[in-house]
Write a structure and sequence with these properties.
1 helix, 10 strands, globular, 161 residues, three-stranded antiparallel beta sheet
Length: 161
């Protein structure tokens, strides 16, 4: 699973959002994005040994089985790490600076960590949460945002705003 502006479905239609990176699904990660479009957070697991893995890949790193399944997560987690890029890494993000990028440790699977943004509401701008409010260990819950037609990404909201 990668993010790119090349071959992406289109720019973010939100105000000031043109040129923002959009995910491009590869064969292994396509189910993740299909579930996200249904507002479900799912993680790939091994049908043989039950171990969860992320990012998605064809073979289990624990038992080498090629039998996979997608397990639904509660959508809850905690902030494991974060960064506020200074200056923004890409020109399209300058209008939204300062914004955050957080790493979320899933409550259902503490070894699984997802990267995203902490926002005030699912469709809020990337800079909708003051970086001073971000705390390691803060409880978060998933929300889903459609930055372009046919593309849905998980974002994160503070459990206690």
């Amino acid at each position: 699973m990668k993010a790119t502006t090349d071959n992406a479905p289109g720019p973010d239609p939100s105000p000031g959002g043109e040129g923002l990176l959009l995910p491009v699904a590869d064969e292994d990660g396509a189910p993740f994005w299909e579930y996200a479009a249904r507002h479900e957070l799912r993680v790939q697991g091994c049908a043989a040994c039950g171990e969860l893995r992320f990012p998605p890949r064809p073979c289990c790193p624990h038992c080498q089985s090629f039998d996979g399944c997608w397990q639904r997560m509660s959508g809850r987690g905690r902030i494991w790490s974060y960064v506020v890029p200074h200056p923004p890494l890409l020109p399209a993000y300058a209008a939204q600076a300062p914004y955050n990028v957080i790493v979320v440790e899933l409550a259902d699977a503490p070894r699984i960590r997802l990267v995203g943004n902490l926002v005030a509401a699912a469709d809020a701008a990337l800079n909708s949460v003051d970086p001073a409010r971000i705390r390691i260990g803060a409880a978060v819950k998933v929300a889903f945002h459609e930055p372009a037609p046919g593309v849905t990404v998980p974002r994160w909201l503070l459990e206690r705003p």
